[in-house]
Each structure stands twice: as structure tokens, then as C-alpha cells.
Amino acid sequence: MDIKDCVVLRFQQICKERKIKLNELATLSGVTPSTVYSMVDPRRREVSIHTIKKLCDGLEMTLGEFFSTSEFDSLEQDIK
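Above: the chain sequence. Below: its structure as C-alpha cells.
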């Protein structure tokens, strides 16, 4: 799993826990629904930290809380 997949999975988990849909996440965060749906599109391989920060703000969580999971801790280094 790569970093983008981890980011998408994390947002999906949080939405499921809080019982909100991706459209609601967009509204809470002040971004367009197309921004959120573009992020979860498997053909898109990049997601900006700026977008992640806005989504975290909408969820009232810090970036530290967002990235503090075993999935992010176990990512392999990109530089080999």
C-alpha cells in the first residue's frame, strides 16, 4: 500500500466511524465534493497536504491525529 492509498483509507475509516458520507466531509471541510471524490479515485496518484489539512480541519482533528496510525507507521521508504 502506498501513501495515497493510506490517506484515502484513513479518511474512509473516519467517515465510517462518524457515520458521515464523503459529501458531508466536503461540506464540513469547505471543499467541493469533486475534490474529495477526486482524492478517492484510484486513477489519481497524488493528494496534496493542503487538501488533507482542510479535510482534517473539517473533522476537527490535527494532522498528527490523522497520521498517527499503524498503516502510516508501516509504510516502506520510497527511497531505496
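The domain at 3-72 is CATH 1.10.260.40 (434 Repressor (Amino-terminal Domain)).
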